[in-house]
Amino acid sequence: MAELKKTPLNGEHRALGAKMVDFGGWDMPVQYTSILDEHAAVRTRAGLFDVSHMGEVWIEGRQALDLVQFLSSNDASKLAVGQIQYSGLLTPRGCFVDDMLVHNDGESRFLLVVNASNTEKDYAWILSQAGRFDAKVTNRSPETAQIAIQGPRALGILQPLVKGLELSPIKYYWYGYGTVLGESCLVARTGYTGEDGFEIYCPPAFAPALWRALLEAGRADGLIPAGLGARDTLRLEACMALYGNDIDDTTTVLEADLAWILKLSKPGDFNGRPVLERQKAEGVGRRLVAFELLDRGIPRHGHDCYAGSEKVGHVTSGTLAPFLKRPLGMAYLPTALAEAGSLFEVDIRGKRVPAKVVPKPFYKRPKG
Prior knowledge:
By secondary structure, the chain is α+β, with helices and mostly antiparallel strands. It is globular, with a radius of gyration of 21 Å. The chain starts with 9 loop residues before the first helix and ends in a 10-residue tail after the last strand. The strands form 4 sheets. The protein has a 7-stranded mixed sheet with strand order 10-11-12-13-9-3-14. Strands 15-18-17-16-19-20 form a 6-stranded antiparallel beta barrel. The protein folds into 3 domains: 10-52 and 144-237, Gyrase A, domain 2; 55-142, Alpha-Beta Plaits (2-Layer Sandwich); 285-358, Beta Barrel (Elongation Factor Tu (Ef-tu), domain 3), CATH 2.40.30. The chain has helices spanning 10-15, 35-44, 64-71, 119-129, 154-158, 207-217, 228-237, 273-282, and strands at 19-23, 26-31, 47-50, 55-60, 84-90, 96-104, 109-114, 136-139, 145-150, 162-163, 175-180, 183-188, 197-202, 224-225, 286-293, 304-307, 310-320, 327-334, 343-348, 351-358. It has 8 helices and 20 strands.
């Protein structure tokens, strides 16, 4: 068995007594105290996450934009320098090699942030597509650590540690460069929790010092370290897709209900365009929906969904939502059952529990 990969913060997690698990080949903290406490901290105060396992692939050169456009579902030509977009890294069938964040770094340079367990696969896929473009592709994941501070108090905790970059004017899904405790870092107003917050990209050797400094700086504001368990429940309340559960290389962008990241109006060819144009015109047979249970039970990934005696789909993600305190999830259902208000049943250990399709997302952070 291959040895688990470790982030630069592995020693910090163990010193804090985190419960560690194998996550896609990485030795990662699933929780420190409890998922409920960590989830609540992010919703009401702030939480600190190690996301150094994520992948960072840079595309640079004269045709960098052309390559990004060919690889992705969204329209990267619309990005200003310092702006980020959520997009699909697509197969020729319009399905997901992965989902990713595309950063326009200026001067024909783009940063693609991809999922940890997919990094090598994604990098190989991008290289396989890059041959006819005048662009250089570099996997800089080993040279990059990433720490996310998320929650309503994240800005106030982080700003005193940052010089040369005012965080307040940075809009959601924008980023800039600043000096954090003397080290040059990329600071992005992004996250995977549904809350306001920032993701800080820094050299691996610097990550432990930054982690400790953030925890100390946020102590009075109730900042605590948070693990993968809370990250998963937080993203589910916000209806953010998880690769391997809600989207994969068998689900198209339109089936995943992500039409907003599909820009068929952009010029030129891109992976999956013919399939997705056809699906757009003809409609899809199934769609990823959000649902709530109408009775007691906890829906989990893999549970079957029924309409009468007919099996019509399966749960992709589900939980008893810690903040909303409701059993909820996402599932692929036939298009006829995909509208809000539609009723179906989830088979939970042999018991059929009634469920209702509801609008996305379950949770939306308060404005202001």
